[in-house]
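User: I'm new to structure prediction. If I give you an amino acid sequence, what do you actually give back? Let's try with this one:
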Amino acid sequence: MTVGLEHYLVLSALLFSIGLYGALAKKNAIVILMCIEIMLNGVNIALAAFSSYVTPAALTGQVFVIFTTIVAAAEVVIGLAIIFNIYRNRETMEADKIDMMKW
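Assistant: Good question. You get back a string of structure tokens that encode the predicted 3D arrangement of the chain. For your 103 residues, that looks like this:
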């Protein structure tokens, strides 16, 4: 049995669904950030799989995956800095209790 494009797409959809559920259902800001990263990894798997199966000679999908991973790493650094700053001021990481934009 060989691993085909469908297997990669099922894995990608499963990762994206788990990340989406976690981002919508959880209250902890760090867990929400981790779920967003899981969603990005699901998209990266689909992008690399499509690139590998549609145009195997070109590495465009893999290059986009590298750029997406770099952007995701930058997002994590900035997101964690914001979350830690909010925790220092509010002493909570629950997304429901962060109301700094209210008047």
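You can read the tokens as a compact description of the fold. Here is one thing that stands out. The domain at 27-95 is CATH 1.10.287.3510 (Helix Hairpins).
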